[in-house]
């Protein structure tokens, strides 16, 4: 096979709603291909964490924007164990707290925040030293990397997504978890489109697929679209 025309890193852009499996599936795909992995939602979560830790009112856009000046963010792209850092604090676990999930859309809806983070994502992608990188979020296929050679929308029915997220949180408060997930998708949908596939984006519906089958389906899309990846 001929690799001459392949531009490195090879970018796989993957979007989808909350609980569709973006993060876990992308991470496993990256592991299997020996590529990097970038979870873009972690940056929005970390900024929400930073703003709250700085005592900022998240409804005050100007203060949220001002917070970007002191937002010293770090994330790795190793799918085997990346950590998320804000300043000297490891926030990898803290940003998964339902309290952050409940407020993250408020920072993500601010256009200046999006512009800032999108530039950051592009520089992380450009610096990837492995052959490829799987980048997941809400606007990767449409805004962050619309020219990516592989663009995928990972979906699953709302019921399935809710039960996956509730199980992940130990089955506690399934109803509240479901309601929060629905409210977050609704708020996020006003800012970016991730419920339907844009032109040229391949949909993978994981509602009836188990985890391994979903990973295999995503790798199948990558191989079909670019036979030199293997
Ligand atoms: N196809 C699948 N079948 C069953 N469970 C899955 C599948 N895909 C993901 N999961 C599980 O669902 C939960 C949510 O996945 P996650 O990757 O966090 O989604 P997202 O990043 O889209 O919010 C995780 O516990 C994950 O292991
Ligand atoms: N590319 C992205 C990624 C996340 N986000 C925001 O960040 C939040 C957290 O994203 P996430 O990917 O960690 O959320 P989950 O789908 O994993 O629950 C989302 O609810 C969006 O508000 C975004 O606006 N654009």
UniProtKB/TrEMBL annotation:
Catalytic activity: CMP + ATP = CDP + ADP; dCMP + ATP = dCDP + ADP
Enzyme class: transferase
InterPro entries named among the record's database cross-references: Cytidylate_kin (IPR003136), Cytidylate_kinase_dom (IPR011994), P-loop_NTPase (IPR027417)
Binding residue positions for ATP: 16-24
A molecular-function term among this protein's GO annotations: dCMP kinase activity
Keywords in alphabetical order: ATP-binding, Cytoplasm, Kinase, Nucleotide-binding, Transferase
Cytidylate kinase domain location: 12-222
Enzyme Commission code: 2.7.4.25
Organism domain of life: Bacteria
CC per GO annotation: cytoplasm
Biological process annotations from GO: pyrimidine nucleotide metabolic process
Keyword ATP-binding: yes
Compartments, record wording: Cytoplasm
SUPFAM superfamilies the record matches: P-loop containing nucleoside triphosphate hydrolases
Classification via NCBIfam families: cmk
Family per record: Belongs to the cytidylate kinase family. Type 1 subfamily.
Protein name: Cytidylate kinase
Annotated organism of origin: Agromyces agglutinans
């Amino acid at each position: 096979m001929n690799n001459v025309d392949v531009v490195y890193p090879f970018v796989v852009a993957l979007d989808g709603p909350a609980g569709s499996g973006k993060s876990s599936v992308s991470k496993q795909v990256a592991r299997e291909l020996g590529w990097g992995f970038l979870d873009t939602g972690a940056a929005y979560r970390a900024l929400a964490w930073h703003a709250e830790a700085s005592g900022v009112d998240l409804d005050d856009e100007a203060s949220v924007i001002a917070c970007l000046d002191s937002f010293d963010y770090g994330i790795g792209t190793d799918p085997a164990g990346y950590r998320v850092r804000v300043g000297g604090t490891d926030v990898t676990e803290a940003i998964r707290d339902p309290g952050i999930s409940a407020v993250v859309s408020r920072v993500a809806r601010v256009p200046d925040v999006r512009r800032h983070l999108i530039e950051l994502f592009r520089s992380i992608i450009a610096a990837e030293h492995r052959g490829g990188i799987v980048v997941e979020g809400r606007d990767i296929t449409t805004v962050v990397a619309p020219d990516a050679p592989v663009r995928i929308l990972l979906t699953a029915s709302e019921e399935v997504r809710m039960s996956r997220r509730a199980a992940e949180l130990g089955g506690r408060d399934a109803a509240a978890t479901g309601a929060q997930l629905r409210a977050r998708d609704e708020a996020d949908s006003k800012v970016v489109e991730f419920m339907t596939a844009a032109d040229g984006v391949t949909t993978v519906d994981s509602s009836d697929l188990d985890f391994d089958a979903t990973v295999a389906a995503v790798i199948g899309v990558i191989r079909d679209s670019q036979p030199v990846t293997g």
